[in-house]
TrEMBL record:
Its EC number is 2.4.2.1. Gene3D superfamilies: Nucleoside phosphorylase domain. Residues 18-261 form the Nucleoside phosphorylase domain. This is Purine nucleoside phosphorylase. Pathway: Purine metabolism; purine nucleoside salvage. Homotrimer. PANTHER family: METHYLTHIOADENOSINE/PURINE NUCLEOSIDE PHOSPHORYLASE, PURINE NUCLEOSIDE PHOSPHORYLASE-RELATED. Belongs to the PNP/MTAP phosphorylase family. GO terms for molecular function: purine-nucleoside phosphorylase activity. SUPFAM superfamilies: Purine and uridine phosphorylases. It comes from Mycoplana ramosa (Mycoplana bullata).
Length: 265
């Protein structure tokens, strides 16, 4: 990805971004919080993967959030698109090559808790890799044995919690379970997920956490709750529901992230 980094450096305008933010389905509105935004379609970036999922803009956005330089990836490539858990390694390597040392991941997810309805925001405190896929399979180095006890940085978690309090936004916390997708979970799978300790389910993020920790990046993550999981309401799930509901919680998450990043270390 050196060619992509070399291509981007002149576009930074002297900015030295430390924060990278990955935006999930329907969360592109967070881009509007970036000041002096420079938008670069993924299609213009050498060897950059382009998502096939509606609701993902497919562009890199460079600018400032509360005066702090950031790089946003508006849209991600998912495991279920081509069966490649390592699909986001290139983009994350590019972020690191641009100087990013802190990665904030966002996604849309289904709630397993009655007290966490659609429109809520959940800080991911831990995850369960139910898919069994791993982007580090095939890495020919002992570096592949990445410790995950502190996958989600405690300092960043505290800052996110503090930012939520300052903005008056309720921030849930819980365990995110990664299913491969693209089909939604069955009611039986949702019951199983609850038994195993999950609070929300989704189809992304976990591969990026694994890659980010492999690359030495600090990680924080949050889910925007777009629906109750299968079997909780009797209604069928759809991607349209995800796109319709994501902006509701997305606005809340945008306020939290702006406050979190703007408060400094």
């Amino acid at each position: 990805m050196k060619a992509t980094v070399d291509h981007l450096v002149p576009r930074l305008g002297g900015l030295a971004p430390r924060y990278g933010i990955v935006l999930g389905s329907g969360l592109g509105s967070l881009v509007e919080t970036v000041e002096g935004a420079v938008r670069i379609p993924y299609s213009e970036l050498p060897s950059f993967p382009v998502s096939t999922v509606s609701g993902h803009a497919g562009e890199m956005v460079i600018g400032q959030l509360r005066g702090v330089p950031v790089v946003m990836l508006s849209g991600r490539v998912h495991y279920y698109e081509k069966g490649d858990a390592n699909a986001m390694r290139g983009p994350l390597e590019v972020l690191r090559g641009l100087g990013v040392d802190t990665l904030i991941l966002t996604n849309s997810a289904g709630s397993l808790r009655e007290d966490m309805p659609p429109g809520s925001v959940m800080r991911i405190a831990d995850h369960i890799n139910f898919s069994g896929a791993n982007p580090l399979i095939g890495v020919d180095s002992d570096d592949r044995f990445v410790g995950m006890t502190t996958a989600y940085d405690a300092g960043l978690a505290a800052r996110m919690e503090n930012a939520a309090k300052k903005t008056g936004t309720r921030l849930h916390q819980g365990v995110y379970m990664w299913f491969s997708g693209p089909s939604f979970e069955t009611p039986a799978e949702v019951r199983m997920a609850r038994i195993l300790g999950a609070d929300a389910v989704g189809m992304s993020t976990v591969p990026e956490v694994l890659i980010a920790r492999f690359l030495g990046l600090k990680v924080a993550a949050a889910s925007v709750i777009t629906n109750f999981a299968a079997g909780m309401t009797g209604a069928e799930l759809s991607h349209h529901e995800t796109k319709d509901m994501a902006p509701v919680g997305g606005a809340r998450l945008a306020a939290i992230l702006a406050e979190m990043i703007g408060d400094g270390d």
